[in-house]
Write a structure and sequence with these properties.
By secondary structure, the protein is mostly helical. Helix content is 68%, strand content 0%.
């Protein structure tokens, strides 16, 4: 499939029929080998054609069922995906994979794909990060700088902006957003990500015990710095003092036990993954035991989550 796409070959009809018949057998191939082939496909100039061939031959249903259209609306979604994929500048593998998965799964489910193929932690983390932060840059020029700066200052920002630029070239994103983000990335690092005007040491000097309030206060001060509300360290420290005073005088609210909160967050993440896995299992339609097991796990997690939320 990869060579047929790369050299624009037509697959002979009998060979194509045999490919379709034997496509499920590819599951016998090691995940690492599948990942190697996918990486070679997705960084190739003919990557969109290769993915379409994967779908047409039935191989995608075996190795990446998440992108296989199953209803009348999904072929259009696949077309959009391939238009964007085709318009990426020579991409990093993680950027191309994130682009391929963006319209089909969330960040957690995309990382499940990476783990299924036994990709490196670097690739897995980058794919998840790109998808988790894509929406932050929608309409970026009209948002407070503090809201988008942390994304544009992160290591994966160049890959994320490359995906947005490809979406804009495909007519699926605002080109002004892409150009604005690219211009910000071109700024010198001290301009894009200036040193913070207040740190945890300043809170410690004021007798504040380390804890969750540290992050809340420092984030508030950082936002004010990035949005131009404070200009120097003295103004930052005055803001710190006001925020500490406000926190001390605010009536305490009854809070959910920290352990319960963590369990709820873990369950919500688990449910996202299970639902994506269940959707993939239903598409494959050849392992009813796996589908039943996933349905049972979803029901159990939903019941536990409801119980925790009820108190």
């Amino acid at each position: 499939v990869r060579f047929a796409a790369r050299f624009d070959f037509a697959i002979e009809p009998d060979t194509l029929a045999a490919l379709r018949d034997m496509a499920p057998e590819i599951r016998a191939v090691s995940p690492e080998r599948i990942a190697t082939e996918m990486q070679a496909m997705l960084v190739d100039a003919r990557r969109a054609a290769a993915v379409r061939l994967l779908v047409e031959t039935g191989l995608a249903r075996a190795v990446l069922p998440e992108i296989v259209p199953d209803d009348a609306t999904q072929p259009a979604r696949l077309d959009e995906t391939l238009r964007v994929l085709d318009r990426l500048d020579p991409p990093e593998f993680a950027t191309a994979l994130a682009t391929l998965l963006r319209r089909w799964v969330d960040a957690a489910a995309a990382q499940d794909v990476c783990r299924r193929w036994r990709l490196s932690n670097r690739h897995t983390d980058r794919v998840g990060w790109i998808l988790a932060h894509r929406s932050v840059l929608d309409g970026a020029p009209s948002k407070p700088w503090s809201q988008v700066q942390r994304v544009l200052a992160a290591d994966g920002a160049g890959d994320l902006v490359a995906m947005i630029e490809a979406e804009a070239r495909a007519g699926l994103a605002d080109p002004n957003d892409a150009a604005w983000c690219r211009a910000r990335l071109a700024q010198p690092r001290p301009v894009l990500d200036p040193p913070p005007l207040a740190t945890g040491d300043d809170l410690k000097e004021r007798g504040l015990a380390p804890g969750p309030l540290y992050k809340t206060l420092l984030d508030r001060v950082r936002d004010a710095q990035l949005d131009g509300e404070i200009q120097d360290r003295e103004a930052a420290l005055r803001l710190v003092d006001r925020l500490i005073a406000a926190a001390a005088t605010r009536p305490e609210e009854r809070a959910m036990d920290k352990r319960t909160k963590k369990r709820i967050e873990a369950l919500q993440q688990r449910l996202q993954r299970l639902r994506q896995q269940l959707a993939g299992a239903k598409k494959q339609k050849d392992d009813t035991a796996e589908t039943a097991a996933l349905q049972r796990q979803v029901a159990e997690a939903e019941a536990e989550l409801a119980k925790l939320k009820e108190g």
